[in-house]
Amino acid sequence: MMMRLINKADMLPLKDVKIHDDFWSYYINLIKDVVVPYQWQALNDKVLDAEPSRAIKNLKIAAGKEEGEFYGMVFQDSDIAKWLEAVGYLLLCERNPDLERIADEVIDLLAQAQQEDGYLNTYYIVKEPGQRWSNLCECHELYCAGHLIEGAIAYFKATGKQKILDIVIRFADYIDEIFGNDPAKIHGYDGHQEIELALLKLYEITEEEKYLNLSKYFLDVRGIEQKPHFYDSELEKRNGKIHFHQWMVDNKHYSQAHQPILKQEDAVGHAVRAVYMYTGMAHLAALTSNEALYASCKKLWNSIVSKQLYITGSIGTQSYGEAFSFDYDLPSDTAYAETCASIGLIFFAQRMLEIEADVQYADVIERALYNTVLGGMSRDGRSFFYVNPLEVYPEACEKNENYKHVKPIRQKWFDCACCPPNIARLISSLGQYLYTVREKTIYANLYISGTSTFKIDKKEFILEQNSSYPWQEKIQFDVQTNQDVEFNLALRIPSWCDDIKIKINEAIYPIKDSIQNGYVFIKRSWKNKDQIELLLSLPILPMKSHPLVRQNAGKVAIQRGPIVYCLEEVDNGKSLYQLELMLSSGFEIIQDSSFIENLQVMFGKAVKTKETNWIDTLYKKHGKIENEIVTVKLIPYFAWANRGLGEMQIWTRFVE
Amino acid sequence: MMMRLINKADMLPLKDVKIHDDFWSYYINLIKDVVVPYQWQALNDKVLDAEPSRAIKNLKIAAGKEEGEFYGMVFQDSDIAKWLEAVGYLLLCERNPDLERIADEVIDLLAQAQQEDGYLNTYYIVKEPGQRWSNLCECHELYCAGHLIEGAIAYFKATGKQKILDIVIRFADYIDEIFGNDPAKIHGYDGHQEIELALLKLYEITEEEKYLNLSKYFLDVRGIEQKPHFYDSELEKRNGKIHFHQWMVDNKHYSQAHQPILKQEDAVGHAVRAVYMYTGMAHLAALTSNEALYASCKKLWNSIVSKQLYITGSIGTQSYGEAFSFDYDLPSDTAYAETCASIGLIFFAQRMLEIEADVQYADVIERALYNTVLGGMSRDGRSFFYVNPLEVYPEACEKNENYKHVKPIRQKWFDCACCPPNIARLISSLGQYLYTVREKTIYANLYISGTSTFKIDKKEFILEQNSSYPWQEKIQFDVQTNQDVEFNLALRIPSWCDDIKIKINEAIYPIKDSIQNGYVFIKRSWKNKDQIELLLSLPILPMKSHPLVRQNAGKVAIQRGPIVYCLEEVDNGKSLYQLELMLSSGFEIIQDSSFIENLQVMFGKAVKTKETNWIDTLYKKHGKIENEIVTVKLIPYFAWANRGLGEMQIWTRFVE
Hints:
Two copies of one chain form a homodimer.
Chain A: E1 10-11, E2 17-19, H1 24-43, H2 55-62, H3 77-93, H4 97-113, H5 122-127, H6 136-139, H7 141-159, H8 162-178, H9 195-206, H10 209-221, H11 230-237, H12 246-250, H13 271-288, H14 291-305, H15 339-355, H16 359-375, E3 391-392, H17 394-399, H18 419-428, E4 435-438, E5 441-444, E6 450-456, E7 459-467, E8 474-481, E9 485-492, E10 500-504, E11 507-508, E12 515-516, E13 519-526, E14 531-536, E15 540-545, E16 555-560, E17 563-568, H19 569-572, E18 579-582, E19 587-592, E20 599-609, E21 619-621, E22 627-636, E23 648-649, E24 652-655
Parallel strand pairs in A: 5-9, 18-24
Antiparallel strand pairs in A: 1-4, 2-6, 3-23, 4-5, 6-7, 7-8, 8-14, 9-13, 10-11, 10-14, 12-13, 15-16, 16-17, 16-24, 17-22, 17-23, 18-20, 19-20, 20-22
């Protein structure tokens, strides 16, 4: 590969972005008004008909405030941390004394639960004192620590309150004493990556190099070639005691511990673990200008994006191990496609985008965001998908064990409740995904309306973005500045768009030759009230899969802009697989507010197999089947399962 | 339903049928010369690179002839019994002193192992003495007993030697003392049905009504509405001890113990258990002229045949529980489709055929026999499929856990070795499936060449059948008799055939009005050298599935006669799903002896998606894909996987 130094861009910080968007403000408000309060109820076991969390109770027990036993998953603490992180992002956008008081009380409990030496994990404090660090492979101690660090940073950034930051600094310092190259330390790493990316955030906020070094240590030591493998040696030390499953220890691919990270070229194993690790790798590559590490990240990125990514931005093909399977294996109906995995993929993409402005990274962020992440939550913010299938037959979910992981309706809370708080922290921090800034270039990555404040050459100015994206073609930027400022505005041209127009102050801007890696670069000395108009055409695209995706042979998925469409039984009747979309008939876009305000749905034609000729015979000679032409309605995938139980299908057979 | 008395037909006994058939003699000889000897090696742990069986060693330990511990599955004994049954059938066709001597030695061991009270089961004798009948749900005691009874009857019929019959009579008498309505007896039944059908065979050979009554007891008591359920009460008595899995006890549908048999309308649960039970039910219905029971059998039959049967004659949709799932759920790639289940289905069909001459029963026998059963064994008789998928992508079997039960190549022996001996006993007794006789009517159910001896009105005569079925259209019957004999010859017209001709002594026989339930009836006073010629046209049929089979939407399977064809990678390259058969181009039949002698293969045309335009993109706008027209080769499904590892596919997309 060509050697060059990485020139890291920075996300425009969340505090500098105020979103006011027709599409997204609803969801951000939903997170603020419903999801985060609901999650607080859940953490306190006050959601009826849902699995109890006990996370706060565990913390109170650890803090010595209540009696009782630990309850829940070994990683139950992480739900509190993710909640705290979402709270931080919300407060960063808008202060809220009541919410802040609740969070401060949680932080007080965390302080009280924290041990003398800095350790903090309710499972090991309450349930297995003395057994710390004995089962890194399975028991998520560093994973929980990582989430706590992320939560602390978000809350500190929002409120400036040092207390929670001090807690995680003490904890991180303690972890640094326990792990590392020093012979007296543990030469190991967590079975679920997360600490790696968290320590890099802690490094960024504290500028303390030891956190960067510790993150690097955890990444470097992972999967090194030694016998016995770290997981096996710690297993032996604890006399073979298994927490979850023997295969979690045995299958090193599951947690990407099968070989050193620089040798890893294929995305394998548990999808969330994988993308959390890749996020850390990419961040470290950027921070340390490590080209070799970046090259590894690119290989892993390509392994996902060119061979293992669902059209909805989901990853994870199989239920077993919630894992990748193999290249081009993308079943719609048995997909795992965990919400958290798409969120982790967004983290990874964002870190890649900081290294290199390439449209593919923002494309994937958008694909995951508008489809899987949004689809992971009901419109009312009260129920959630863990698994996001691309095709559902409810009877199969109930009666064929191959589909047992697929729920045809969203669930209130989960006994493994990782996804809802992950949605909350992502959407509440959405502002930071809009722009990256590299020296004098502003990259507009996502088209979401809002007011953003930039500082270039020590000149502060505002970019106001306005659009009805993803429904309408026009996106407008207005410059508000007290003084002229020179910068490059790099506008992302999504890869689904092949017809764009740009006007600057109503004059057509010649795009030719100004596109690089999918961004149109506009270099200019900008004046107050300068206006940029970007027209991204939004054709309806019947998309095909790579010919090696056997499950989608002979099928199309309908996409418009970043939105993937699906068929639902409530609109189209049962047996969606009997439909063949008539592509030549085209599709009509209709605004429909019947169940989601201003949703753009589509109508088209399809050939449907008529059943009248078939009675009791299971097989018969081809030739006698009658078809009829029917009108079909397609809705955005993210909107599915908001109208009761029924079939859903994205990939559909077609006739030209 | 209309009440009428069941008029049971009888299978023409195996001893009266001598098969000499171009197609089948090979397999019968293979069973005799390779499979049964090979199985004997396997039972004695002498097959290299295969799981040890230890079945004979267990028996020797139980007989006090060797020291050691029980090894293997709790139902390991049944392999010996099934081997003995196959030996019996082989000896019935042709005496063989060496084989008989080996069998006699095994019988001596069985006699020595049999306990004072008649009990005989090596697991409980050797491994858990004192625990008999404590876990009927999971531990297969009565199942093993049933197989031993079947083996004994076959061997007794062949040799006339009473010893093995006495063993199982003593055992059955003992079982009769243990189980039944009497308050002091156990009111329970085996988790795996088999004893039911075996006791009915024992009743037929001994004419001892108590065996019929005991079989009826086991069927009637199954799934009766009581709390706690029998499985739960025995579980409680053994303090919750589980042998295999808790779900086997909890899931009453798994072993069809969820409701009384007369209430069961849908085929559910473990497919082999189901069809063994239905076989017993149908036999009992016939023997006792029980119309209500027969009506239940018909419902269950229809549940399978109209809604849950693969085109290959396989049953069992899901790996979990090796079970049925739900109506019209027939995945090709994750099918369970166990060889034993198809064999059990043949047993069931045969019992139904004895009750009612309806072509559908023989059709299913033929479908299962020529496709799944034959496909379950390699051409050399040395390796076997347990699972018989209709579509295989070897990489998926290796890397996606949903396919872990699917082996893309046949295995030498199994740690659960039920299928190979089941194939052996079925094929070695194939002769008894050719004809049924009801009073003065001879039903020709299968077209397999051979010489069969009948006795009607006390007149003995011979029907000689000759054909090159399933490859050629002409089937000829020759009457050899010393005196004229009046009987109905009922010739089955397979449901795939819609063009038949019959000639008697070269004169065309008018078929019209003489067809009933798929049989052409020819009533006549037959003379020596009378000749019947039946011409069954063998068109190549692109078959479609019922529109509710979502997995086969837009696909055809090619069938000719009873033979289902498939595509293999070795002939057609990788990515078989990229092919669309061009139906209008037709297919050419070619005789091919390249790997199986006189195999009829097919050549046709297909449209294949070209991959040249795709490089790294996983999804792109439809429209730019190029296709090419290729020649495809189809081979009989039963012949697949005889030429190394590769893809295989039956259901294929098509263009008209």
